[in-house]
Amino acid sequence: MREANTFRALWEIGICFFLLYTGTIFLFRVCFLEFHIPKEFHVRDGWARMDDAMTIVFVIDLFLNFFFSYRDEQGVEVDSMRLIGKHYLKGFFVVNLIACTPEFLVQALVSAISGHSLGNDSAVGHSAGIARIVRLPRLSRILRLTRLLQVFKLVFVQSRRKTLEWLQEARWVRVANNGVGLLWVVHLLACGWYLCAAMHHDPSQTWVARRTVDADGEVSLLTRGPVDQWVHAFYFILTVFTTVGFGDMSAMTNGEIVFVCFTMMVGAVVHSIIISEVINIVTTVDKRHDFVAKQCELVEAFAAHTELDDQSQKMMRAWISFSAKDWMSNRYDRDEVKALITDKGMPRSLLGRLPASLFHGALVKNSFVAIRRCPQETPPRLPLLLALAVNRGHYTAGEIVYQKHDLAICVFLVLSGTFADVARPSPSGGVDEIATTPGQSDNEIRIEVDGPHSMRSRPHRQSTMEEMQVQPHSYHLHPYQLHGAGGYFGLGEVMAGGERVSTVRCESEVGGSVLTVQKSDVAQLMQEFPQYAMVWQSQSRRQESHRQRLRSQLTTGMTLRRFAAVRIQ
């Protein structure tokens, strides 16, 4: 079953639930109830049924993993049954098998080895100690918690919902994840700290007996219930993790000393990782804030020089704040990366693999690059250098990409959505025109829909971001040439070195995404790949001739759906 399989996704969610139960409630019950000192606490039937259900699910999962695909070191999903079985047997199969081993089998094995019957494990102290040892393999189920990483990765990587993407990137969520991770590690080690006392042959010599819970120091923690004992164990481990060390609890027995030394080493590593991660989250936001502040200072200086009105300044600042994240993600030394691609001895295997991975393979399949019949004939450094030069852009439905008389400064490679050359219909053919600019008091947004009344208006009070995104009115312009995913547009004017001769608009209801290549980068690529320069020049002339022919056929305005239907017919 591949990662996209629905049953597998539902099964992973169920496994995730039982793993979370294993790492929290089950761990508490085993350590503080079944290993409770001075005597075991009775386990309710409801929790016992939960344990039985968990055992059954884990046994089924033990065999289902032989049918689940995995990703290799290169991130490629492997669905070969032979490779899956080999990978699973070398990996987590042994851990899963131990976690699924029934307790009565372990009990019988220990009884055979020790020569003692565990039918009444309270008969003698030796048998009581063996009975506790028998239950220790149950704790091996926590080793399955590494599966949580695979489940979470599968859920977030496969999902494309904006809510989950926002949760992944939200600062408070990332900080909370680190906090929850720290508390869980403390809980795990608190259970181990209690087991140091529970496994001792004389509980009166352990930290549980030495710990007092009253002001007079007469009431021992040994007389309290599981929850109280867990709270004190959790408190001690947290003081060790944070290096506070109040001194009110300490290790005495050899087992306690060894465990505390281990806890200090784990705490030093985990605490450092979490603190550095939180600092990184905070400083990243600070860097973005400083970047936005610097750009806003430039806007204020520009506004003072050009005497911009307050509303225009406000819209520019909103645009900067909205786009700052994308700008910062593209801030890297492109000359250094270019030198790495061209000057270093990159292995041929890597050089041949990278182009197909750029933008999930969309760049090398774009007709701007794929001008040869065989993709293997494309020079591998061409898409690499092109990817280095491009910038991603997003357009909403009805947004003007460029219009007639604009300066031709870049070429647009379509990643998703549909874009179209638009013009005003006339009996003699289409007429290239510019979109009309809305007035300062224009508070209406016109929406084009299919039907007898193609134009509808609705009043709408706009925020600063909405005002910034208000597009020039282009409802009098209709499509006559479409550009879909894998295509490109705007090359002819860049080659000619003049202004735009047409108007292009985003037609998709969900918007569209493009990669923009600046005019100077196109010229550099033409210089480095002269064989492509001749093809691009020839294509630009043919495309312009084709565009003019299609424009001459625009005698009646049509919506995108009607126009597409007519073109298909």
Automatic annotation (TrEMBL):
Subcellular location: Membrane
Domain Ion transport: residue ranges: 11-287
UniProt entry tagged with the keyword Flavoprotein: no
Chief localization: membrane
Keyword tags: Ion channel, Ion transport, Membrane, Transmembrane, Transmembrane helix, Transport
GO molecular function list: voltage-gated potassium channel activity
Membrane topology classification: Multi-pass membrane protein
Highest rank taxon of the organism: Eukaryota
Gene Ontology cellular-component terms listed: membrane
Segments passing through the bilayer: 12-32, 53-71, 91-110, 181-200, 230-250, 257-275
PANTHER family: CHROMOSOME UNDETERMINED SCAFFOLD_10, WHOLE GENOME SHOTGUN SEQUENCE, ION_TRANS DOMAIN-CONTAINING PROTEIN
UniProt-recorded name of the protein: Ion transport domain-containing protein
